[in-house]
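Review form for a predicted model. The reviewer records the input and the model, then writes brief findings.
Reviewer: anonymous (R2)
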Amino acid sequence: MKTKLMVVTSVLALLLCGATMFAYAQGPGGEGFAGPGHGYMGFLARELNLTDAQKAQVKTIMQANKASMKTVMQQLAQNRAAMLAATANGAYDPVNIQSLATQRVQLEATMMVNRESIRHQIYTQVLTADQQAKAEQLRTQEINRINERLQKMATETEAAPTSNQ
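Model under review:
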């Protein structure tokens, strides 16, 4: 059970981080790589010390994938609107809600695959061997932070008093 919770929480955390990365990478006007100091891609640019040429390559990769990502993001927004409409005024139709939830999970999976494809392209086409090593170090640190949070959550859950009184 503990392992299952860790896997689910890790996937959710990675999904959240990836969604944040993509949103920030699009920049305020949706023009692609926003440069140093702007969200996750700015963080990577600083941490990995990307050159201007590498930043341009990242922007090109992001632009090449923008249309497919935008389509999925629009479908996710439509799904969210449909869920809000389906539950308005306290309405509850479990069959409809399950259908919308299943659709959302499929869309999020598509988004995750697209995002990982972009990361793979950046990793293999843009980063030098030293930058790849640094990226892996950052990934390991993030995994450790997630595991620490999961351990803390598990400890807090075990220590929580039961309300069987």
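Findings: The mean pLDDT is 82.
Further findings: The two ends are 26 Å apart (CA to CA).
Recommendation: see findings above.
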